[in-house]
């Protein structure tokens, strides 16, 4: 009996010692890959893993297709190319700091990256999939601030993904709709995100991740994408939690074929794009559009300023507007963290020239019509000197604060927990007084990459970063951001409207910018009610 027990334990030891570790090539559905270790050896990094076939040639403007399997071991040590996109303006905020990504561009860009501190495939760590921002026109998974090493050290597997942007990811056209089995076109960038989530479900266990604990998170257009993934039926069951940082999808949306009040049908916008490519004499046929180089596609978009890449109601990826899907309780019923920043507008409109109060009133009248008087009751302007601050505050609330509160309110209708935050820390960047807690300022704190920035972090920055990393990774682990030594973060509910201020102090507040958000709620309700 003793001998058989000894043999059993020896066999168990030998089995464990021979179990494949993450230093071995990882076997995926499409082939084997190898990565590299971080400088301290604690994290394995796999860059440039293809999750879909290159969307080139006849696959331009088609849903993502399966990866062609490969032989041998693919060395995944370098980021894949960025998806084609125009450069930022020379004087852009995003072109002067650590946001610049010098990775080459190519339409062959559907790659993702994995950071993991798991020792074996059986560790089943929670997985966090990052969706970059950039207005659906730019951005990539290879931006330096998105490095996942420090988050992985907190016990999560981090995945960052590329998706098609600009006219490559969001162009609709009647011919594209006709060749689709779903009668749909556009939304290709969202389909790329869904495909990446399917890849995670199929493969993340090989990196020590748990396909049953997947959190999607994103900022700006990445946050709008997170909101969209909750809404589309194609992503149901592919993730279990979600985090939205400064971006939602609750405004009016364009439709594939029908004009909406103030919004051109997406197929008509695609025809305008085709006319620009055809020299205005006649729309260029689809075959010609697919033969254009990537640079020619981008140049054509520049000729059509009224054509902007956007997520649309196409009858397949989105059977209805996102607000309606949430209002009807048809969204994915997952717990969420949602939030925005105190000075969202500064990095977007901070370079605007001076404007008089009279000019501003004319602009507001064109935008808000019958709501003009109510706008100025909410945001009073008494002199030219006040215009800039009022404009930036209204951008913050109309584009971001209202969106995130609305998202929280609509999640409460499906018994999902929502945790709302408001980021107020002013990073010590040059011109910090001008920019404040600017759009996207929070993310470097969340991923712990303060030392990758152009500013010198202060002790308060490091402490806030540790706190936010703990909240985010706790949430990925359990669905609750709270944990030991953290200020208790109560869920957002429609009556109490609790939120967590994340700044020089970490503290709980209630009814964030309520008057302002109530105004934008009424304004957007009126737009939805228009025939």
General description of the model:
With 531 residues, the protein is an alpha/beta fold. The strands form two sheets. It has an eleven-stranded mixed β-sheet, with helices on both faces. A three-stranded mixed β-sheet has the order 1-2-5, with no helix packed on it. Helix 7 (266-277) packs across helix 9 and helix 14 (387-411) crosses helix 18. It is globular. Helix content is 34%, strand content 14%. The chain has helices spanning 2-18, 149-152, 166-169, 174-179, 188-203, 221-231, 266-277, 286-291, 294-302, 322-327, 346-349, 357-368, 372-378, 387-411, 432-435, 443-446, 459-478, 514-529, and strands spanning 26-27, 32-34, 36-37, 44-50, 73-75, 111-116, 125-131, 157-161, 209-219, 241-245, 335-341, 418-423, 498-502, 506-510. It has 18 helices and 14 strands. The chain has one domain (34-49, 73-249, 311-529): Rossmann fold.
State the gist of this model.
With 531 residues, the chain is of the alpha/beta class. It contains 18 helices and 14 strands.
Question: What coarse outline follows from CA principal-axis ratios?
Answer: globular
End-to-end distance? 82 Å
Please give the largest β-sheet.
Answer: 11 strands, mixed
Write out the CATH superfamily name.
Answer: Alpha/Beta hydrolase fold, catalytic domain
Tell me how many strands there are.
14
Helical fraction: 25-40%
Strand order, sheet with most strands: 3-4-6-8-7-9-10-11-12-13-14
Number of domains: 1
- Roughly how many Å is the radius of gyration? 24 Å
Total helical elements: 18
The CATH architecture classification is 3-Layer(aba) Sandwich
Poorly predicted spans: 1-20
CATH names the topology as Rossmann fold
Beta-strand residue percentage: 5-15%
Q: What structural class do you assign from the helix and strand content?
A: alpha/beta
Averaged pLDDT: 92
CATH class: Alpha Beta
């Amino acid at each position: 009996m003793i001998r058989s027990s000894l043999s059993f334990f020896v066999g168990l030891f030998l089995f464990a010692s021979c179990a494949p570790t993450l230093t071995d090539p990882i076997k995926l559905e499409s082939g084997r890959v190898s990565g590299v270790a971080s400088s301290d050896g604690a994290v394995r990094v796999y860059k440039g893993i293809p999750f879909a076939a290159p969307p080139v040639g006849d696959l331009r403007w088609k849903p993502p297709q399966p990866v062609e399997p490969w032989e041998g071991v693919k060395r995944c040590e370098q980021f894949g190319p960025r998806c084609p996109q125009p450069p930022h303006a020379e004087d852009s905020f995003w072109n002067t700091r650590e946001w610049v990504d010098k990775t080459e561009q190519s339409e062959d860009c559907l790659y993702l990256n994995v950071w993991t501190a798991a020792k074996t495939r059986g560790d089943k760590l929670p997985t966090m999939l990052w969706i970059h921002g950039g207005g659906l026109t730019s951005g990539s998974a290879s931006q330096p601030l998105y490095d996942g090493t420090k988050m992985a050290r907190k016990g999560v597997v981090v995945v960052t993904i590329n998706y098609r942007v600009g006219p490559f990811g969001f162009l609709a056209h009647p011919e594209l709709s006709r060749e689709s089995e779903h009668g749909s076109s556009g939304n290709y960038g969202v389909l790329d995100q869904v495909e990446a989530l399917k890849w995670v479900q199929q493969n993340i266990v090989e990196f020590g991740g748990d396909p049953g604990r997947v959190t999607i998170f994103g900022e700006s257009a990445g946050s709008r994408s997170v909101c969209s993934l909750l809404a589309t039926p194609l992503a149901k069951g592919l993730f279990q939690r979600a985090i939205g940082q400064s971006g939602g999808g609750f405004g009016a949306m364009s439709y594939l074929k029908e004009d909406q009040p103030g919004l051109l049908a997406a197929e008509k916008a695609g025809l305008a794009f085709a006319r620009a490519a055809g020299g205005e004499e006649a729309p260029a046929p689809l075959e010609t559009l697919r033969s254009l180089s990537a640079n020619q596609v981008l140049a054509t978009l520049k000729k059509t300023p009224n054509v902007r890449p956007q997520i649309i109601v196409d009858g397949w990826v989105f059977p209805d507007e996102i607000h309606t899907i949430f209002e009807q309780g048809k969204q994915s019923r997952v717990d969420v963290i949602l939030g925005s920043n105190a000075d969202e507008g500064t990095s977007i409109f901070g370079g605007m020239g001076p404007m008089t109060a009279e000019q501003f009133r004319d602009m507001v009248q064109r935008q808000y019509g019958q709501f003009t008087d109510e706008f100025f009751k909410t945001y009073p302007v008494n002199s030219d000197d006040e215009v800039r601050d009022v404009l930036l505050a209204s951008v913050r609330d109309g584009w971001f604060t209202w969106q995130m509160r609305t998202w929280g309110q609509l999640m409460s209708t499906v018994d999902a927990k929502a945790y709302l935050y408001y980021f107020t820390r002013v990073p010590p960047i040059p011109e910090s007084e001008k920019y404040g807690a600017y759009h996207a300022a929070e993310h470097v704190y969340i991923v712990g990459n303060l030392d990758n920035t152009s500013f010198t972090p202060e002790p308060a920055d490091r402490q806030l970063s540790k706190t936010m990393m703990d909240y985010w990774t706790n949430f990925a682990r359990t669905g609750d951001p709270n944990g030991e030594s953290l200020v208790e973060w109560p869920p957002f509910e429609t009556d109490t409207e609790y939120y967590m201020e994340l700044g020089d102090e970490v503290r709980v507040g209630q009814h964030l910018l309520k008057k302002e958000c109530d105004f934008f709620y009424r304004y957007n309700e009126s737009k939805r009610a228009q025939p």
